[in-house]
Structures are given as C-alpha cells and as structure tokens.
Design brief:
8 helices, 6-stranded antiparallel barrel, 376 residues, elongated
Length: 376
C-alpha cells in the first residue's frame, strides 16, 4: 500500500499565523489595561453606616395594619379539570383565582367565572393549608359563586363586611389577591367611579359596579376590594385592558349585591328572584316607538301580575294588535329594560308589595303587586 502523501511545507506551518495573531492581541490588551488603577491594596473597606429611618408615616402604618388583619381572610383557589390519561381519567390544574372566607362554616366567595367549567377546586388558606372545596351554588348573573371547605373554625377568618352604597369617588381602596399566582399580593388605589355597568357571562348586566385604579390582574378575580377600615366593599371581577394586564381600570361587584346574593346561594344554591308573572316583549319595538319600559306580552294565570290586574298584549277579532301594559317603574326605581326589571326584583323579597308603575293606553297607572316566591 502506498504511503499517504505529505502535505506541502506551507500547509504544515499554517497554524502558526493565527497563533501569532492571538499572542499579539493578548500582549496589546495587557499593555492597554496596565495603566488602570490596581484593584485592592487600598485602605480597609467597611459597610456604610445605616441612616436611622425614623417612624413610618401614619398612612403606611395604617396600610400595614390593614393587610395584617385582612389577608388571613383571603384564599387562593386552584380549579381542576378532568383529562384522559394513558390508563385513567385524571384531574389536572386548569386555572387559578382568588376568594375570601365568608363565615365560620367554611363558605368561600369567589367569581363564577373562576370556577366555571371546573370539575373540582382546591382552596389554600393564609396558613398555607390546602382544602378540597365543594360547590354550594352560583349566581352567574352577578358573576358570583360560593364554595365550601371543611376546615376547622379556628383556621377560618371571616372577612369584615362593609357597604358600597355610601362609597365616594376618591376614597382609598385596597385589593388583595393572587395575580399571576403571586399569592397574597396587596395593591392600593382609589374609587375611580361609581355606578358602572359591566356584562356578566350570561349577557345580563351587573349594575352599580365600582371602578378602581388599584391594580387588578388575572388571578385577582374573586378577591376582595377593601375600604380603609379593612371592610369588604366589592369583589374584584374584571379589568378593561387591551393587553389583558392591569391598565388602572378595574371593576368590582359591589358588596351590597354580594351581601344580598350570597345568603340566597348558601340557602338555595342560586339567587331567589321574586316573581311577578309576566312575559316581556321586545325592547327594540318600544325603543323604535320612543317609549321606555318593559312591554307585557302575557300574564301568567294565578300570578301576582294577574291578581293585581296587569294586562298583556292581545289581538282583537279583526286582527288589530293591542299593546299590553308597559312597566316603567317599581317603587322609586325606573324600569327602562328587562335588566332594570330583574335588578329591581332581585332587591326585593317574596311577599313584598311593590308599587308597579305602568303605561296603559298612553296613561300612567300604579298597581300594587304582591311578589311571589319563584316556582321550583
């Protein structure tokens, strides 16, 4: 076998060129930095003395105390969904949100959209203990839900409940929740506006909503909005943001709504809205005619509306359409839509006598209607 040919002499020494260039660059760098002051070798270095801070400002101390007292009432909710595994169906984490302890019986309030579509949920308390939750009931029209955990009463810290009817634009509010899974996060702001309306998942309108610039992000949903006394004034539920993160425009369901709805959900599993016994007609038709209110299309037999004398829409023998009563108010509340009618009824109890203002044949009329419990 012939031996492999030897490379030319120039090729055998080609590696010397880059080696020489690298050596030259190293020498130049050493010369370049040789003029710098040498590190170390000076007088001994010691930490800077700490400047005394003095006392915290009064508003800082108030915020710290508020968080200390209120945060044990806040919970972290992890929802689970069923997923087909290789051998069996498993429950895997599906989402996360916030909530708060409602009472010593272990009821926990959160948003309906937090638990919507979940097969199960776990609730983490302030002491990091985790508890399986059962669903007590939901109020989708108000975006509220109630869970229950079987934790001992000494681990439960029910939240302090305030009112929302006496809030003022500009007063301080505080949100505690779990944005992006960062549990027990406190953000602060003010009441930016009152009386807002936002849509629920059902398409119904949630009225009297609180707008705030306290930072609310995904994961805050269901957490409490507190006043400066540490009382619940709202349940954080939505943000208005083109990016999906906080833009300083957040919304909270008012506590007056929460305090009315939650006891009903705990007792009945749903909101118990008193019945009046009418079927509503198209709102668009009335609006095109320039009339505000809810057109009564039909009146249920034996209903409060029939007993009070409300009239439905009907056709005469010659085919002429005769419009029924148009409901325009209940007590002192104006009614211009079906949403207004539902909202007015939800603020009342079965057995209440409501003064229903209607427009009949172009003339105003007031009827006393004794509201009935809903049919199961």
């Amino acid at each position: 076998m012939d031996p492999l040919p030897r490379p030319p002499r120039a090729a055998r020494h080609a590696w010397l060129v880059p080696f020489a260039l690298g050596l030259l660059a190293a020498v130049l760098l050493v010369q370049l930095f040789s003029g710098w002051p040498r590190l170390g070798g000076g007088p001994p270095a010691e930490p800077r003395p700490v400047t005394p801070r003095g006392d915290l400002a009064e508003d800082e101390k108030a915020t710290i105390e508020l968080f200390r007292r209120a945060s044990p009432s806040v919970v972290f909710i992890t929802t689970l969904a069923r997923q087909q595994g290789f051998f069996e169906i498993q429950e895997v984490p599906a989402g996360a949100g916030s909530g708060f302890v409602w009472d010593a019986q272990g009821h926990v309030v959160t948003n309906f959209h937090v638990i919507r579509g979940a097969s199960a949920a776990r609730v983490s308390l302030h002491d990091r203990s985790e508890w399986p939750a059962t669903l007590v009931g939901v109020a989708p029209d108000q975006d509220l839900a109630v869970l229950r955990i079987r934790a001992p009463a000494d681990r439960l810290v029910p939240i302090l409940v305030g009112t929302s009817r006496d809030l003022h634009v500009g007063q301080k509010v505080f949100a505690i929740g779990n944005p992006f899974g960062l549990d027990f996060t406190l953000t602060t702001g003010i009441v930016s506006a009152l009386g807002r309306s936002i849509p629920a998942l059902t398409g119904r309108r949630i009225d009297d909503v609180i707008q705030t610039d306290a930072a609310i992000n995904p994961g805050n949903s269901g957490g409490p909005l507190l006043d400066s006394a540490g009382r619940l004034v709202g349940v954080n539920t939505q943000i208005a943001s083109p990016s999906g993160a906080s833009a300083g425009v957040g919304f909270a369901v008012p506590v007056d709504t929460v305090n009315r709805v939650v006891p009903q959900v705990v007792e009945h599993g749903r909101v118990v809205r008193p019945q009046i016994g009418i079927t509503a007609g198209s709102e668009q038709a009335l609006r095109r005619a320039g009339i505000g209110g809810v057109l009564v299309m039909s009146v249920a037999e034996g209903s409060p509306a029939e007993r009070a004398g409300l009239r439905g829409t009907y056709r005469t023998e010659d085919g002429t359409l005769v419009l029924g009563d148009i409901v325009q108010g209940i007590d002192r509340e104006e009614v211009s839509s079906v949403d207004d009618l539902y909202a007015a009824l939800e603020r009342r109890e079965p057995g209440d006598v409501a003064k229903v203002r209607v427009l009949r044949d172009g003339r105003p009329l007031e009827l006393d209607v004794k509201l009935a419990a809903p049919r199961e």
